[in-house]
Structures are given as structure tokens and as C-alpha cells.
Amino acid sequence: MSTTATEVLPHTLTPHPVTGMYNGKFGLWLFLASEIMLFGALFSSYVLLRVHGAFPHHGEHSLSVKIGTINTMILITSSVTMVLAWAAFKLNEPGKGRMFLAATALLAIAFLVIKLTLEYQHKYHEGIRPDTSTFYAIYYCMTGLHGLHIVGGVIVIGYFLLPGFGMWKTNPEQYINRIECTGLYWHFVDLVWIFLFPVFYLL
Amino acid sequence: MSSDHGHHHEPGFIRKYLFSVDHKVIGVQYAVTSLVFLFIGFSLMMIMRWQLAYPSAPIPFIGGWLASAVQGVVDKTGTLLPEGYNALGAMHGTIMVFLGVVPLAVGGFGNYVMPLQIGAPDMAFPRLNMASYWVFLPGGIIMLASFFVPGGAANSGWTAYPPLSVTANVTGTNPFWNGQTMWLLGMIFLITSSLLGSVNFIVTIVHLRVKGLQLFRMPFFVWAQFVTAFLLLLAFPPLEAAGVMQLMDRVFDTSFFMPSGLVVSGQLQEYSGGGSPLLWQHLFWFLAHPEVYVLILPAIGIVGEVIANNTRKPLWGYRVLVYSIIFLGFMSFVVWAHHMFLTGMGTTLSTFFQTTTMIISVPSVVILTAFLLSLYGAAIRFTVPMLFAIAFLPMFAIGGLTGLPLGLSASDIHLHDTYYVIGHFHYVVAPGTIMALFAGIYYWFPKVTGRKMNDFLGKLHFWPTLIFMNAVFMPMFFVGLQGVSRRLWDQTSYVTGNETHNWVKMSSWGAWMLGLSQLPFIINFFYSAFAGKKVAANPWAATTLEWAAPSPPPHGNFPEVPVVYRGPYEYSVPGSRQDYSPQHVPDAKLA
Hints:
The structure holds two protein chains of two kinds. Chain A is an all-alpha fold. Chain A has helices spanning 23-51, 65-90, 94-125, 134-161, 166-170, 172-202. Chain A has a domain at 63-202: Four Helix Bundle (Hemerythrin (Met), subunit A) (Up-down Bundle). Residues 1-5 of chain A have low confidence and may be disordered. By secondary structure, chain B is an all-alpha fold. Chain B contains 18 helices and two strands. The radius of gyration of chain B is 24 Å and the shape is globular. Mean pLDDT of chain B is 94; it is low at 1-6.
């Protein structure tokens, strides 16, 4: 165990010899494991409900594949900009880093706006609510929970872009680590959508 | 973690005692809060036991107060109502498990002791630790507040099975602020708190151990907390998902768990239907089975520490113990449907779960045997913690053995949902875990406060507690075997209930006497905290690292970062002058 001059708690910055990670990264992977269990439980519930005939007309849903595809492209692009942000900071180019962080956040907001207006709001006007059928219930539940995770990510990115940017000056190594962890979280949220899209829109 | 600990200026009262990031302060916060919740949960049961022993008799002393203070629990005469009985029952279970035992065992003991035992200055994420507590507390407050809303608290069991839990207390109440909905909201807070905590525990144990503290030199208590953290991390999310779905069923009229064509009180329910009540059961028990191992593992960890220390010998089979709890952790994820044998599952599925359940009993027996063998040939010091730790062994044995006929699907047909089940699980948790937690309190109190608890009061607490725990729960096996159902407001309205009524009265009187038996403990706890006999760093002559820190440890825990030279239980090493060799003392410096 070694402690650098800037860390009071060991391995805040220095990777641990056995796990090869600093504390925050290990913590985030563990958190992602629990998130897999969370969304896994929901996907399993979808399977159980569908197999038991809870929504016999699932093939006739009115979810727009076109909008879903656009949103998928938006999220995948945001994952790319997230990595580019981290890479820029690592290469000591904070200007580019902030630009890519902002791009990620804007893409995420675009995703949410499209979802909320073109999808949710549109459905509500058609009279399709969570209580309309169990298919829409689990659709709203899972995409809603996913959307909340995107909101959380936007808040975190916004924090590091604006009020939290001071850490780049005082402790750049830790700032980069936090951007890396945010990226890990962001890729996971993207991955969940990669599963949500085919399950609800295509199958 | 930023560098704000570089300069040590004294924080104000709020940052020091309320919103502290120090694991010791947070541990004490968890412990005190959970002891209060344990007291509340136990009080609910003491009220219920009056109705069980004397059906339809007004509750003495507090019946009138209950009638005015809370809705829907008692009627005007102070007699417990059936819905009130159900509410007390559901909340007793919820409060004891989620607000009492787990926060004490993990949030309290785990937070305080584990970093000290690995030589760390704090947890890996101190602010996350603080957040965990401050998410736990609102969850608990929401649960308690649910008693005071129209319709009263949740009354569909701690298991909250739909369709009952979805349709309960919906008409005539606020669509959001009603008992069951608040229960669901409270659970979401508690699960979140637990999640944040488990991440912290795992990273701390893996990353923050001092030099020389290899995994197989860790105290058994740390191993127990390690496995427990994984259970919490991975088993809770499905219940969180289920909780959100039930919330949607209640508030937004979805049909995740509501089947088509449901008729309630003669009225066809207007849900879209197609849902599955069994889905809730699967998701609930997927958590709730690992949860019972969360209840027992920290207790087993504490018993291990106390036994090693008071036998002045190494624990028998340390490696076997570690492999057993790891195996137990894995197995705990594949037994859950033994709670669902009577849901109409086919023999293939029930055979699978019955088999895994029988397999999982093996590591528990191994652990118990290892502890018993640890006593063999020992020079036992019958300190108060040791009394509780030794008593744990036969009590846990009874609890574990009575689980076997429940885990076998054939005998479970007769025993499911009877008092036999209540007897089984209470033996494991009450004379089991709770007594182990008492052992932990008496054992670590000197480290936390710098003072010992009084021995006489400790023994005055121990013996009646042991006797009355058995008086409460042993009769339940007989009552259950006779066929009396659980969750009955008035058992005597059934012939069988009449025949077993004397046993029920014994349980009730046992419970009230058990309550009185806790008075010496409460007095001892508060008195000793301020005026108990002062002790130095290591009053029990123990080997593990927490005893190397001052009592109580300062911020940062160890004046000098310790280095570990040996295993955790080097007691009575042949050739050494003292009968214990602390982990952090180099060979050359051993007395």
C-alpha cells in the first residue's frame, strides 16, 4: 500500500497492485454490477410477463422505430464524445475536454427532449398511458427509469463542466479519474438503451 | 477524496456529530438509530401479543392513547382491530429487519469496527458513507410516519404480496400518502442507502488493508462483512425494481402484478390486467432470501471474534470458516423459491430449490461445528460478551435445524404459513442474531467509549433474556405443528387455535418479560457511557487491530499506521510469554 503526497486515504489516486484500479473506479464498477441486477430484474420481468401472455398484442405497439433509431444514434454518439472528453483531459487539453463534455450533455438532453415530446407526450395525447396495457406499463417503467439515469448523468457532467471544474486546477489527476468514472457510467447507460431499443421497438 | 483533511481545524458541532464523514461517528449514528428502531419494532409486537393472548380485550395502559394518537389500529375501547393487528404485524417485520437488525449489524458494527480491524484511517468513500446514513434515516422516518396517515400503516405483511398490497387502503385515502405507498417509498430509500454502503465496504476491504494484512489474515468479522456487502449489492436491486413496479400499480393503476378479472369485495377491478402476482413473489424473495444471510453473517462474524478472544485459542478451522461463508454467499442466490413451494410450482422446480436449500444448510453446520470445536480444550473466560456468544450456538442450531422441514417441500406443505415458520426464523434472528449483536455491544463498547459496561447488569440482562427468548419462541413450534396459521388476529376463532391457546399465552407473557429483561441493558448502556469504569486500549487482551488504537480512537484512527505480522487469532502461541500475540507487534517486540 502506498500513499502519494496528495492522498490521505490510500489508493484514491494510485491504482491498487492487485485490482489495478483506484478506489473510485473499483467503486463504480461495483455500482454498475448492482445496476445490471436492477435492469436485469426488469428485463426478466418483461420476459416473464410476455411469456405468460400479459400483453398478447405486443407486436401491434405504436412505438416509432424511426424515432427509436435516431435516439439510439444520439446516445451512441454521446458515448463517443464522452470518451473524447476523457482523452482530451488526459492529454492536457482542457478546452477540448470541456467542449466534448458539453457535447455529451447536449446530446443527452436531445435524447430526453425527443423522448419526452415526440414519444411520451405524443402517446399521452393518443390516450396511451401506463395503465393502458401491461406492455406500455413496462415500457414507461423501464424507459422512464433509464431516462432518470440519463438525467443523473447530465447532472454529473454539468457539475464537472461548470461548478466542479475547479478541481482541474487543484487536483487534475483526480479530476481526470472522475471524468473516467463518469464515462464508465455513461457507457453503461448507453448499453442499457442498446438492449431497451430492440426489446421494446423491434421484437 | 479531496485534500481537505490536510489541515486539522476543529469542526463545529454539526460537522462533528451530525454530518460527520468519520466512519466511527457514522457507525454510532447507525447503531443508536437502529437500537431505537429495534425498541419500536419490539413494542409493536408487545402490543400484538396482548391481542393474541386475550382476544378482543382492550389493551391495558396504552389502549386509550393508541385510540387517539393513531388511526385504524385500535377501536374506541382500545381493543386491537384486525386491520390494526395486520398493520402492527407488517411494520414489526419491516422495522426489525430493515431498520433494526441490518443497520445495526452492518451500518453500526460494520462501519465502526471494520476499518479499524484492517488498519485503515477511514472508509474508502467517507462522504458516501455519510450519505448512506442520511438516506437511511428519512427512509425510517417515512416508515414510522405511515402510522399517522389516514388508513394507517402498511398492513399487507412485510412481504407485501399483491394483489392485496396493491388494492389495500386505496379507497378513501390520499393517492400517494397512504400506508402501503409510503412503505414502498421508504423501502426505496433504504435500499439506496444499503447500496451506497455496500460499495463502500467492498472497496475499503479490498483496497485499504494495511501492509501485511493479507486476505487470510483478516479477522473473521471482516470476511463476514465482505460477503454480506456482496449480498446487499447484488440482491437488493430486484426488490428496488419490484418496489417501483408496485408503486406504479398503486399510484398509476398499472398491472405489473394485477391479474385480469380480479374481483375485490364483490367488485371487478378495472385494471388492464395480464399481470402476475407470482412475479412480485419471485422478485421479493430473490432479495429476501439473501437478506436473511445478511441478517446472520455479521452475527456469525461477531461470535467468531468473541469466541477466539475468550477461549484464548485460535478459531478452529479459520480457512474452512472463510470458504464456508463464501460458499454460503453464492448458494444464497439460488434457494429463494423455497419460500414459494405452495404457489403451485411443479415438482421439477420444487425439487431444484429443495436440493439447493439442503445444500446451503451444510456451510451453516460447518460454521457452527467449527465454533463448537473452538471451545474444546479452551480456558474459557465467561465474560458477558462470551455468555451471549456461547448462547448463540445452541439457539442458532435450533433455528437452523427447524428450517430443514421447511426446506423440504413435502413437509413444507403442512408447515408453510404456520407458527412453525415464525418460530424457525425468530430463533435464528432473535436468540440468534440479536444475542450475537448484544455480544458485540458488550465487547466493543470499551473501544467506542473508553469505558466498560457493568458486568453485574450484563449478567442480569443475559440470563433472563436467554430464558424468555426461549419462552416466547419455543411454543410456536408446537402451535405451528398443530396447524395454526400465521397472521391471525384471533386464533381462538378456530378449534385448533383454542387448543393451543395456552402456548400462545406463554409466548405473550414471555415477550413482556423479555421486554422487562432489557431494562438492565438500557440502564447499563447509558450509565456506563458516562460513568463506567475507564479502560485502556485493549481491556480484553485481544489480538486484532482495532485494539491497537486508543479507546476511543481519534480522527484517523491510528497515531502510527500499523503493519501486520501474523494472523488474527494468535492466542496462546507456544513459547511466547503472553497468552496473546497482537497482529501489529513485530516478533522482536512481543512481550
